Amino acid sequence: MSLRAPVTVVLSQFEDIIGLGLRVLIDGDPGLELVAHNVPHSELAAVLLRHAPRVAVLNFGSLVSATDLRALRRSCPDTRLLVLANHPGPNECRQLLSFGADACLAKHTEARDVLHAIHLASRGLQVLPAMDGGGEERAPAPGPDLLTPREADVLTLLQRGRSNAEIALELSVGIETVRTHARRVYRKLGVRTRRELRSASGRT
C-alpha cells in the first residue's frame, strides 16, 4: 500500500500569534508539510515559484490589491490559494474567488476547519466560510479595496497600453464606461495616471 505524499504548504506573513498558530497547526498534521512560513508579500511570488507548494495560505490584509491574486494564479497555476481575512463577507469571498483564490476563510475559523480547508483546496475544491446564522452585520475585512471583475479586465488592458477606445472595442462597452472603470481602478490602486499605473505594475 503506497503512502500519499504530504501536501506542501507555504504561509505568507501574518500577525505573530496567528502565524505561530498556523505553523503549529500545520506541523501537527502528518498529511501536511510546511516548506516556508512568514513570507513577506514582496517575496511571495518568488517563494512560490521556488518551492511550488500545493497550497499557499495568504493574509488578506497584506495584499496590495486584488490583482495580486491574479498575478499569483498566473505565475503559479498549480498552487492553490487559501486566503484568510478577519471577517470576510459573502461578496468579498465571491470576488476573491473570481480573482483566483481557491478558498476564503475567516481568521477566527476553528483549527480543524482550517486544516480541512487546506486539504480540500489542495484537491482543487473551493471553500467558503460558514456565514453567521444571526444575520449580524460585520465590519468590512481590512485589506485592499477589491476590483470588480470588469475593473480587473480594464486594468489588464490599461497595463498593456491600450487606449480607452481600444478597450471599449475589446470589451464591447462605451468609452464613458471605460473611463468610469479606469477612474475606479486608479482610486482603488492609489494611482492618478496611466504612467503611475505602469510604474506600480512594474514593481510586482
Brief characterization of the structure:
By secondary structure, the protein is an alpha/beta fold.
What is the element layout, followed by pairings?
Elements: E1 7-12, H1 16-27, E2 32-39, H2 41-51, E3 55-59, H3 67-75, E4 80-85, H4 90-98, E5 103-106, H5 111-122, H6 149-159, H7 164-171, H8 175-189, H9 194-202
Parallel strand pairs: 1-2, 1-3, 3-4, 4-5
Structure report:
By secondary structure, the chain is an alpha/beta fold. The protein has 2 domains: 116 residues, Response regulator (Rossmann fold, 3-Layer(aba) Sandwich); 54 residues, Winged helix-like DNA-binding domain superfamily/Winged helix DNA-binding domain (Arc Repressor Mutant, subunit A). It contains 9 helices and 5 strands; from the N terminus they run E-H-E-H-E-H-E-H-E-H-H-H-H-H. It has a 5-stranded parallel β-sheet with strand order 2-1-3-4-5, sandwiched between helices. Strand 3, helix 3 and strand 4 form a beta-alpha-beta unit. Helix 6 crosses helix 8. It is elongated. The termini are far apart. About 2% of the residues have low confidence.
